[in-house]
Amino acid sequence: MLIARRLYVYFIAAVSLGMVAIGLSNLLGLAFMRISEAVGTSVRTQSPESVRREVSLYAALLIVALPIWLFHWWLAERAVHRPGSDGEAERTSALRALYLTLVMAAPLTSVIASAVELLRWFFNTLFSATATSGDTYEHGMSIAVFLVSSAVIAYHASVRRRDTRAGPLEDEAAWLPRLYLYAVAFIGAMFLLFGVADLLRVLDDALFGTRAVVSAGRWWADPLSSAAARSLVGLGFWGLCWSLSLRTLTRADWLGVSERRSALRWFYVYVVVFISVLFTLRGVSLSLDMVLRWILDVPRLANREGWTRAILEPLVVAIPFAGFWIYHRLVVVGMTPEEASAPLAASLRRVYTYLVALVGLAFTGVGLAWVLGILIDLLFGGTRTVSVSSLFWRDDVARFGSFALVGAAAWLWQWSSAEQRLAEHAAAERGAMTRRIYLYATLAASLVAILVSLAIVIYRVISAVLGVSHGPNMASALSPALGIAIVAGALFAYPLNVLRRDLAQREEAGVEAHMVSLVLVAPADADIDATVARLRAQLPEGYRLDRTSSARQRTALPPILRGAPDDDPKTPVVGVP
User: Fold this and answer.
1) Which of 127, 332, 478, 500 could form a disulfide linkage to 221, CB 3.0–4.6 angstroms apart?
2) DSSP-assigned letters across all residues of 99-157
């Protein structure tokens, strides 16, 4: 099938399928509405004329669009089942992969929203919270949307599995559906994490008493129902997608090899790790904030029960994020022996280490800069601390001091791990791209902070010289910027020193890349990618295997390896630097 014709077929199939889904969902919703009216459970009714008008509209959509979709989908499927290279080209085409991905992605929002609404309705009914349970008509529409959207996703997922079982897929045909898989896993993980966090907040309110004024006896019913619904939906989507990924990893065929080498999988893992680390550190810092307020005698809470709640609640809410952090850390470090021997494993663990260290350093820098600014203001009699109540600046010291302490602990933990790895594998660690990215990112962020803060300082000084009034005295005008500049200067100096040390020691060690050209001669039907992957897995630390396959390199081969002119021109040449 030509590209233009393929584009036409899949475009019309996608548009007509959308019309079919809309028409069928609304017709089912109207049917559920009539049933609810008949049994007397609906609080909303429509006039017969309005119902007939809607039935006419959505039936017309279905009658027109369904034959068009069936015909164009038949054309696409007929092309896939053609014998020989024509059918293979259709099965592995990027346009087919794009179509399958889009028609599974488009109804996903509807499936998630309707599933959450239906579960929330179920739990509210279970808890007898009828005042917040909503309209039966709306729930009938949610059921219809859920059924139709789920059917669309399930059918096209089965088509994708069939295409996968038929043989290897490459490029867009392989990574587009994988992108969909991990995008759904990420969405499910976020629903799960924040849903469980809200469940724990409801539990906290139940134990210590709600802080809001409520009139209903079962104040907890609606927030508990909503949180439980989001948690279950998130668990379902994340569990389904992640278990599919884990099962794929254990496969011995091309799909398992492709999954183990997938960058998308590790990108997903590290995005989840970043969010989990961020909210875990935030929860711990908020708890430590309350401890420091209590130590600094910032009396915002009247009794011991209030302090206990304020200290424990952020820790409790951070539990799901900490659990995800621990689990995905185990995913990174708990590889199989085959994977652990590969250089990729060291790179993945290195990314985890520097990612967490970067988050911890950000918390530390923000916290230290603000606390130092307050101390400078206090030392030089600025209005930020002298003319206001001491509770004001002590509150800030507690809040940002907790940021600094928690961030420093996370940074020291991961940086010590990086330094230990440096001591064990000095050459590989100093030459790692991840380490250089971390160091240069820290330098760049620190330098930007220095430039901005120094510009503010100079601006304040020149304004004072020219007699421009800015309200507070000079100490208060300069203290925030000075705090940022001093901390940013320290954060700039340390990684700069580390980077200079790394470069100097690499030069002293005389690290060079020795390239040895090897030739891999394989049968015409051999799986070159799998063979090269196995060879890379056996390389020692510091070695790299680059594939430089090209027919033009055959002229550089010895005559015995060149073969006859009519030999397979795709024999790969593999260089080992």
Assistant:
1) 127
2) HHHHHHHTTHHHHHHHHHHHHHHHHHHHTT-GGGS--HHHHHHHHHHHHHHHHHHHHHH
Q: 502: which DSSP letter?
A: H
Find where tokens 């022996």 sit.
337
Instruction: Enumerate residue ranges in the chain where pLDDT < 70.
Output: 1-2, 37-47, 128-138, 210-217, 299-303, 334-345, 382-392, 469-472, 506-515, 540-542, 547-577
Which residues, 6+ apart, have CB-to-CB distance to 439 below 8 Å?
495, 498, 499, 502
How far is C-alpha 379 from the chain's CA centre? 44
Q: b/e string for 355-388 if b means 16 or more Cβ within 10 A? A: bbbbbbbbbbbbbbbbbbbbebbbebebebbeee
Q: Whole-angstrom Cα distance, residue 83 to residue 525?
A: 19
Closest CA to 156 of 30, 357, 323, 17: 17
Q: Report residue 359 as tokens.
A: 């988050």
Q: Which among 491, 504, 538 has a CA at the least distance from the CA of 426?
A: 504
Structure-token pair, residue 207:
């134990």
Sheet holding 573-576, edge to edge: 516-519, 573-576, 546-547
Look-up: residue for tokens 């791209």? 433
The pair phi, psi for residue 576, each rounded to 5°, is -120, 100
Among 325, 342, 168, CA closest to 261: 342
In what helix (H) or strand (E) does residue 516 lie, and over which residues does it extend? strand 516-519
The Cα–Cα gap between 59 and 24 comes to 8
Q: What pLDDT is stored for residue 135 in this prediction? A: 54
Residue found by looking up tokens 């867009």 in the block: 172
326 phi/psi in degrees, rounded to 5: -65, -45
Cα angle, residue 420 at apex, residues 414 and 425 outer, rounded to 5°: 125
Can you tell me the distance from the alpha carbon of 336 to that of 250, in angstroms, rounded to the nearest whole number? 10
Q: What was the pLDDT predicted at 575?
A: 38
* Phi, psi at 519, each rounded to 5°: -125, 125
Is residue 386 classed as helix, strand or coil in its secondary structure? coil
Return the DSSP state at 574. Answer: E
Residue 228 and residue 210 in contact, taking contact as beta carbons nearer than 8 Å: no
Beta strands in 37-123 (DSSP E): none
Token pair in block for residue 319:
């539990």
What lies within 8 Å, CB to CB, of 135 at 6+ separation is: 42, 43, 44
Closest C-alpha among 70, 72, 74 to residue 62: 70
Q: CB neighbours of 513 closer than 8 A, spacing ≥ 6?
A: 577
Record the pTM: 0.75
Q: How many CB atoms lie within 10 A of CB 176?
A: 22
Measured in whole angstroms, the distance separating CA 502 from the mean position of its chain's CA atoms is 32
